Amino acid sequence: MGIVVQKYGGSSLADADAIKRVARRIVDVKKSGHDVVVAVSAMGDTTDDLYDLANGVSPLPPAREMDMLLTAGERISMALVAMAISDLGYTARSFTGSQAGVITDSVHGKAKIIDITPGRITQAIGEGHIVIVAGFQGVSADTKEITTLGRGGTDTTAVALAAALEADVCEIYTDVDGVFTADPRIVPSARKLGTVSYEEMLELAACGSKILHLRCVEYGRRYGIPIHVRSSFSQLEGTWVKNDPDVAGPEEETMEQPIIAGVAHDVSEAKITVVGVPDKVGEAARIFEALADAQINLDMIVQNISAAATSLTDISFTLPRTDGQTAMTALARIQAEVGYDKLLYDDKIGKVSLIGAGMRSHPGITSKFFGALASAGVNIGMISTSEIRISVIVDETAVGDAVRATHTAFDLDADEVEAVVYGGTGR
Ligand code: ASP
Ligand code: MG
After folding, report:
1. Cα 110–112–113 angle (5° rounding)?
2. Can you state the angle between helices 214-223 and 198-206, rounded to 10 degrees?
3. Could you tell me the distance, in angstroms and rounded to a whole number, from the CA of residue 243 to the centre of ligand 2?
4. Pocket flag, ligand 1, residue 152 (CB < 6 Å)
5. Does any ligand 1 atom lie closer than 6 A to the CB of residue 151?
């Protein structure tokens, strides 16, 4: 018994047949005696198509209207899934994010969930219905406007619902069998992880692994919700994201945790170099203040010592490519004030990250990582580290080789191919 929360992604809901298959899976859980609450994404590439449509109409669509448009994708899925369930002789009630009580802040396009008031959900469950919630959306407490949570946000809807409903588990159904040691689209020999800790999963998600939305993992960790990532196309056990070995999930490999959880990559960033910054107090502060005012999230930052002859230094940093233009404009505005020489912009870069909690207690990980890159002929542009992660910036064209070489160097390759990509365009 108890409540099971499930999430189905767009590739699991690509067409009418897929929706009927998902409906059967949902009904099976209901038949086994559980109450079921399901968060759904938009069908297939609907969200991308809606973006394209908006851009066809206006180069700069107002953020409020963009959210109105995008939330329609999930409304289509929720109603169709509910219909397919009713066709199987069970009743389902679909709810928009707002109806389901998903309360957010008022930032269009990347709203954060601040509360869930699931009154209508619990009432519908009490009446014996299966509940289907449109993912990726909510309503702002302040402005009363409809908001979206950012790309991939349905994962976060699902985990937040699981927390609010005190569900035993949140199952995330996707188009691969779980979390792999690398993206199977790049490393066919990638291995499926049985379990991964929240902190490792947070690093993986932050470093470009698209399997789970970052904020859903933060939510899971905060509320202790075990997240089971698995395929809607197979019956295989997937990957459990959790810390406590005693909660639901497979028996642990308690012997010794693997040192490395995986290799992630990200080709969504760009690099800006501010060339010839005078080496004096306050210059870096001024530069990063301008970027902060422009609402830019930075990733890596590198500053070298200044050349003795000139007393000038270069500062490089990485940021989302989508923010590239905004950042360049913000920096151009302060050129005279700061007195730097020029700006360089490079969006042909990729980030490769090695992640594992075991790094803390195992020396030599960095040298092995860099050695693998060297053997593969990959040049390192920038480096950054956390306690359980090492990331490098390389040429975008070298990302595949870098990931594969690192994966092999750390003995992560599976003997037989385990990874099946069941669907999705990876778009
Ligand atoms: N449909 C939205 C997207 O494509 C939300 C999601 O899939 O989670 O990003
Ligand atoms: Mg998704």
Report:
1. 140
2. 160
3. 24
4. yes
5. yes
Rounded distance from Cα 421 to ligand 2 centre (Å): 14
Strand 146-148 and strand 137-140: the pairing is antiparallel
Beta bridge partners of 272: 317, 345
In this structure, the residue with its CA closest to atom 6 of ligand 1 is: 152
| 149 CA from centroid of ligand 1 (Å) | 9
* Closest ligand to the CA of 216: 1
Task: Report the separation in Å between the CA atom of 112 and the middle of ligand 1, taken as the mean of its atom positions.
Answer: 15
What is the chain's mean pLDDT, rounded? 93
Find how far residue 92's CA is from the centre of its chain. 29
From start to end of 82-121, where are the E strands?
Answer: 92-95, 102-104, 113-116
CA distances from 240 to 35, 66, 421 (A): 21, 34, 19
Provide the pLDDT for residue 255: 46
* 73 Cβ closer than 6 Å to some ligand 1 atom: yes
Select from 3.40.50.1820, 3.30.9.10, 3.30.2130.10, 3.90.249.10 the CATH code of 261-411.
Answer: 3.30.2130.10
Tell whether ligand 1 has an atom less than 6 A from the beta carbon of residue 135: yes
Q: Quick one: CATH architecture of 3-246?
A: 3-Layer(aba) Sandwich (3.40)
Query: How far is 142 from 204, CA to CA, in rounded Å?
Result: 33
The predicted model gives 287-304 an average pLDDT of 93
Q: How far is the CA of 283 from the centre of ligand 1 (A)?
A: 40
pLDDT > 80? residue 422: no
> What is the 293 CA–ligand 2 centroid distance (Å)?
30
pLDDT tens profile 52-88: 999 999 999 999 999 999 999 999 999 999 999 999 9
Q: Is the pLDDT of residue 245 over 70?
A: no
| Alpha-helix residue ranges (DSSP H) falling in 269-422 | 283-293, 324-333, 335-338, 365-375, 399-409
44 Cβ below 6 A of ligand 1: no
Q: Structure tokens of 133?
A: 């919630």
- For the stretch 196-217, pLDDT in tens is 999 999 999 999 998 999 999 9
Residue ranges of the domains in the chain?
3-246, 261-411
Any idea which ligand is nearest the CA of 149?
Answer: 1
